[in-house]
Amino acid sequence: MGSARRNSEERTSGSRAKLSRGVRRPPDRSPVLQRPFVAATFAMTVDGKITTKNFSPVDFTSRVDKLHLFRQRALADAVLIGHSTLKRDNVRLGLPQADLREARIKRRQTPYPIRVIVSDKGKIDNRLKIFQSNISPIIIFSTKRMPRKYQKSLREKATLHLSDAEHVDLATMLRTLRKKHNIRTVACEGGPTLFRSLLERGLVDQLNLTIAPYLFGGAKAPTLTGLSKEFLPASVHCSLIDTRVVGEECFLTYRIKHPRRRST
Fold first, then answer.
1. Helix, strand or coil, per DSSP, at residue 143
2. How many angstroms separate the CA atoms of 219 and 110, rounded?
3. Which tens digit of pLDDT belongs to each residue from 22-75?
4. What CATH number corresponds to the domain at position 110?
């Protein structure tokens, strides 16, 4: 997702847009999966780029798309973000629109989704904007590679889940969110490395994709699945369930098809 798209959260409001008719809360399949329903939201150019080669903020989507991002965030019990993306964008991951918060309360959700950060090394600066706001709890999944000074400073602001492994086990993370924090739906907002890792493990259920009317080019500009030259372990089949065109942008919703497990 483009950084500037997320950075607009403090100033984007209003603009109900034609998009609202298509926004709906995803079905809760968590009792079957024993993990939350995961919906990822991204915007990309016509040639598939989500930002420039330097991962610099590029505001290439409309106000309607920015509101679309907030609406998807508002549907979820938790919003998930990778540390690198959080550090680069430095956002609170809140909901600036009062109507979205009111709708959550009517659905018996908290006014703001729980904020979840993933970091293997855990060197997360507690001065980031997300930690200066107590709108909702913050949960950090990392490993015991996190230096003690970071553990001490972050425990004052967040709940830490630290594993003994070298990398965060994303499947275990999601099961923990479901079991210990009662989270049924997760909005993943990137970055592409985290999205790819979730995708490789069959942990994404829905993709909300905005196509913006631009071409960036460049082999070093990341796509949805990052900069890796490797193919995914297996192709991922997406089923298109909704298409809308607003202005010059196309809003697509895909359900990710998961291979059926053979019964033993």
1. strand
2. 42
3. 445 555 554 446 999 999 999 999 999 988 766 665 688 999 999 999 999 999
4. 3.40.430.10
- Say if 49 falls within a structural domain: yes
CA 17 – CA 6 distance, rounded (Å): 18
Asked if the structure places residue 251 within a domain, the reply is yes
Q: Please state whether beta strands 114-118 and 249-256 pair in parallel, antiparallel, or not at all (unpaired).
A: unpaired
Write out residues in the chain with pLDDT < 70, as ranges.
1-33, 53-58, 261-264
Cα 229 from Cα 240, distance rounded (Å) = 26
Phi/psi for 235 (5° steps) reads -65, 145
Q: What is the pTM of this model?
A: 0.87
Strands (E), the chain: 37-45, 78-82, 114-118, 138-143, 159-163, 185-188, 206-212, 238-246, 249-256
124 is a domain residue: yes
